[in-house]
Amino acid sequence: MLVLGIESTCDETAFAVVREGKEILSNVIASQIDLQKDFGGVVPELAARRHVDAITPLLEQCLQEAGVPLNEIDLIAVAHGPGLIGPLTIGVTAAKALSLSLQKPFIGVNHIEAHLYGAIMSSTEPVEFPALGVVISGGHTALVLMHGIGHYSLIGQSVDDAIGEAFDKVARILRLPYPGGPEIERLAASGDARRYPFKAGKVKDAPLSFSFSGLKTSVLYTVNGQNVSESRGSQLDMQEISDVAASFQWAALMDIVEKSLAAAQLYGLNTLVLGGGVTNNQKLREFFTQADPVMRYCWPNKGLSVDNAAMIAGLGYHCFLNRGEGDAYDLEAKTCIPFGV
Ligand code: KG4
Ligand code: ZN
């Protein structure tokens, strides 16, 4: 079965052709970083307009790279949420239009679940369930009990900022370009992680929940002083900025490591499936292995961690097989979708 995947939840337009949920024939992305970086984040209306411009030429490029004509596609899978409503609507409308004109089924998949599938499709060994899913992206931070592909229960999430969002906001405080995650990681490499005693938040009576907004504010006060209007940001020298980056990165990533391993222990799990853009961070991978060298870690391959359409096509294949049918044309784009739905 050849599945065409479409991703447009945020600021990346992406298409992929995937065979049997696993073999990637093409995986192309039109990033909007050039457009969004001037704003230090994503402007939804601009993102939606750029998706409209990118979508047709990118589809053609995707099919050409896969060597597959459009009429050989068996199923169209699209991320129908969660995400920004304007950008989502472009992808969902494109999927319905293709489905209707080709007379082939289409299916909407959950973008967050697809991030976890990105790690599963990267694995050379079959992943053993139950496993703990760790979603660490720009929009979400979540711990998920994975009973099998498509069967999940949420056991913890962020009550405020997502981890990637915290990286992006701290980068902005340090006047680094968007997206901030890779910039912070680069700067942190020459910084002292013990210089500033930053800490991620604990949530009362919810040990597996996350909170990063206090951590972000501590960084803001350290950089700009308590009175933000009298900014002394420029007084930090390069070494201090690197130390802030390293100390923040350590606090944020160790929080993910500690809560993930605590959850795995609580539920008796020995496999972690990790997805989302923050899995790109090499320090995170190091911290996990140092903290628990015996645990099995399932990481996404390059190209399958940040937003992409191969993970959408791959998960779409399994959803279609599980359900035995596609979605009706009244399926809507949704800014929020509960886990496992
Ligand atoms: O999964 P993704 O493409 O977007 C969402 O679905 O939200 O993740 C993008 C996020 C951004 O916040 C970016 O700063 C972060 O992933 N990111 C990183 C790294 N590379 C990307 N964060 C920390 N370290 C990195 N190396
Ligand atoms: Zn994503």
Description of the structure:
It contains 10 helices and 10 strands. The protein is globular. α6 packs across α8 and α8 crosses α9. The model has no long low-confidence stretch (mean pLDDT 94). It is α/β, with parallel strands linked by helices and 341 residues long. The protein has a 5-stranded mixed sheet with strand order 3-2-1-4-5, sandwiched between helices. A 5-stranded mixed sheet has the order 8-7-6-9-10, sandwiched between helices. It is 41% helix and 19% strand. The structure holds 5'-O-[(R)-(carboxyoxy)(hydroxy)phosphoryl]adenosine (KG4) and zinc ion.
Overview features:
5-stranded mixed beta sheet, binds zinc ion, 10 helices, 41% helix, 341 residues, binds 5'-O-[(R)-(carboxyoxy)(hydroxy)phosphoryl]adenosine, alpha/beta
Fraction of helical residues: 40-55%
Tell me the overall shape: globular
Describe the oligomeric state of these chains in a short phrase.
single chain
| Alpha carbon gyration radius | 20 Å
The proportion of residues in beta strands is: 15-25%
Structural class: alpha/beta
Mean of pLDDT:
94
The count of helical stretches stands at 10
Number of strands: 10
Uncertain ranges? none
